[in-house]
Amino acid sequence: MKRALGYAAKCLLLAAGYFGAVKGGLAFAVVHDFISLVWPAAGLALVALTLMGLRFFPALVAGGLAAYALHGLPLETAAAVASGNTLAALAGAWLLDRARDFDPSLGRVRDVFRLIFPIALGTPVIAATVGTASLLQAGLLDAESLTRAAITWWAGDAQGVLLFAPFAFAWIRRPQPDRRVAEALAHAALIALVLLFGTFVLEVYLGAEKTQLLASFALFPLAIWPAVRFPMREVATFNLALAVLCLGGAWLGIGPFVSERDLGSLVALHGLLGAVALTTLLLGALSNERRMVAAGLAESEARFRSLTSLSADWYWEQDEALRFTMLSPGFGAVHGFDASEYLGRRRWDIPHEDIDSARWAEHRRRVEAHEPFRDFLIVRRSADGQTHYGLTSGEPVFDERGRFRGYRGVGRDVTAQMVVESQLRESRELFARIFGNSPIPMMYRRLDDGVVTAVNDAWCRFFGLGRDEVVGRPVQDLPFNVDPQAARIVQARVSEAGEISDLELQVRVPNGGIRDILFSAQVVVVNGHASVISTNVDVTERNRAAAELAASRERFERLFRASPLPIAISGVDDGAVLDVNDAWTRAYGYAREEIQGRNFVALGLWVDLDARRKVREILRAGGALRNFECRWRRKSGEIADVLISADVVELGGERVMLSNGIDVTDQRRAEAALRETQARFAKIFQSSPVPVVISRFEDGRYLEVNDAWLAWSGHARDRTIGATSVDLGVWLTAADRTAFTQRLLAEAAVRNVETRMRKRSGEIADVLLSSEPIDLGGER
How many CA atoms lie within 13 A of 195 on its CB side? Predict the structure, then answer.
């Protein structure tokens, strides 16, 4: 449905356009009311059916029928005339369609010929025959005027094709106007003005008839210039503009070609414009082809130069005396040498490296024998000491009589190639040294059959095999394979993937032991053959260390889980909890799932955030922390006194904090109670009116005495503390003190033992002595 509507819309537009073209042509009917020398409809119909397709011919029939009927032609006759015009357009479009390579842009002479002779001058015969016959049948044309009417009809249609078809074809192909279109229009206007003003001047002296003849001859050279200069679109535009100006002037009675609308003058002008159109179209096509050929030659020359520059860096010529007569600019650009140094000289007259060698002698023999040569290597050192390499080839040149005229040849700079080859040789030598001296066992073998071609010393030492035992044998048959099936799998994987990286295998070494290796292999091309270079890295110790590390980690995990100390593992920077053990969860009331991944601060564990900052600063500075006292909040909200010890360790490649937080809340409470008890004891001890001393059980040295004792004994405190009762002479005899001590050991406590003691003044006092052993600060 959509395609049908589109077709109908295009038909409607074409019919309307064709209707306007027919009405416009009928406005210039001079021979007959329905016959015109100006018939743009013929060109429009041909272009429409050629570009849109033959299936649009009903639109032409409809448009022509409406135009003729409205112009007063009977309906049957109008239908016949419209059908004849459409049939002529169909014939022309069909002929162009049969010419498969027809180019509507008319850029070639053969395209212009196809448009002019079979179509512009041929198919209008169909329209003229059908049209005049229809008018004759309708009684609108008498037999005497039939020939003149038919010729006029044919001329109008031919002129319409010659002027309007090229114009439409060219503009449809390139619709964007440019400066050259304006120049073509200006040239047409200039010609018209020249003819117009020339007529005013010449008619006074020559008369109208001679002036018209002279203008006809002058028109051709004036019209040839745009045909030669402009592309076909501008030529077609010029032709149409010139025709419009000349026909318009003739119709209005202005210019050299018409006098009071004389029919003969109009026909002459019509023929003249047709001849001009034929000439300019053909000349334009010829000029366009010439430009195309010139462009092709220029492109071919540029392509030749490009190919020459790709295949060679410079071109040279020598005369019959083998002296250089020409060197292209590429020589100096590549080598940096002055080409003038070579001109007029033979190649061996110029200093080159190794010029006295047999190679140069052979080259000189060949050129003196006028033989061609290929890729002769020339080496020359420039003033800055840099060596340049070039390959030159030459062909002898002979004239038509077979006389030798010299050489022509090309040269290529191969300095970079020679440098690369030198570096490649050095690289190969370096690789050979690396292969031979490498501490890593390495092997070369062929890819297709696995036969070993080379092994290095490290390989021989590692496997305990000599080269003669290995080279030339398939790798699958060598005795170091623990699992022969593994060797076949390796061969298959290398053949498919081209490489293997760090494949862990087991091999047998000289003492019969089994070693773990990382096997790597790469397919390389050596001397044109696919080979495999393989390396073996001994990882036995690494694997053993890895196993020990795994066991150590397992022991750590067990110790971590079973430890009675609350232990946590967290990030050093972000404090995120990685794990805690069971003792930690019991001590602080959190389940492991509640805190993993969370921060202790966000959890509300830290009561004092300044303390946490100090912990982080200490760890960052020293990496370890011991018995740092702080307060934590249990899940229940209870505040606990905690002693933190922590270390920064690496766990799984990441720096973490391993910490234990020991709850010392009960200990701190007990210590506080002890301090309180000791304070009360000290207060009672000092304020007692009874003399009291505290002495070490082992040696009897005084640790503390109260004021009552100092007042009673008369001794000073600083002389008493640290001294013994014997030193102070408190006991009358050492035997008395020994007896008292033995009784204290036997009875554990002594009450109210009467004895005698000496004061500092020497006074002897009778005293009742009571004593009891106690633990004080872990000491009796």
Answer: 32
- What per-residue string of b and e applies to 669-698 under the rule 16 or more CB within 10 Å gives b? eeeeeeeeeeeeeeeebeeeeebbbebebe
- Other Cβ atoms within 10 Å of 605 Cβ, number: 24
Q: Which two tokens stand for residue 167?
A: 């114009």
Strands 567-571 and 529-538: unpaired
Query: 3-class SS at 31?
Result: strand
The phi and psi torsions of 438 (rounded to 5 degrees) equal -65, 135
Q: Which of helix, strand or coil describes residue 716? A: coil
**Burial degree of 260 (CB within 10 A; 0-12, 13-18, 19+):** exposed
CB-based contacts of 2, cutoff 8 Å, min separation 6: none
For residue 480, report the phi and psi dihedrals to the nearest 5 degrees.
Answer: -80, -10
pTM above threshold 0.70: no
Read off the amino acid at residue 289: E
Dihedral over Cα of 439, 441, 446, 447: its sign: negative
The string over 521-556, giving b where at least 16 C-beta atoms fall within 10 Å of a residue's C-beta and e elsewhere, is beeeeeeeeebbbbbbebbeeeeeeeeeeeeeeeee
- What is the distance between the alpha carbons of residues 444 and 456, in angstroms, rounded to a whole number? 9
The DSSP secondary-structure symbol of 644 reads E
Mean pLDDT, the chain cut into blocks of 10 residues (780 residues total):
85 92 83 82 91 92 91 91 93 87 84 85 91 90 86 87 88 86 81 71 59 63 81 84 75 59 61 78 81 72 58 84 87 71 88 87 92 90 82 90 91 82 71 74 81 82 81 79 72 78 79 78 76 81 77 75 83 80 85 84 83 83 83 87 85 78 81 76 77 80 82 84 81 77 77 83 82 73
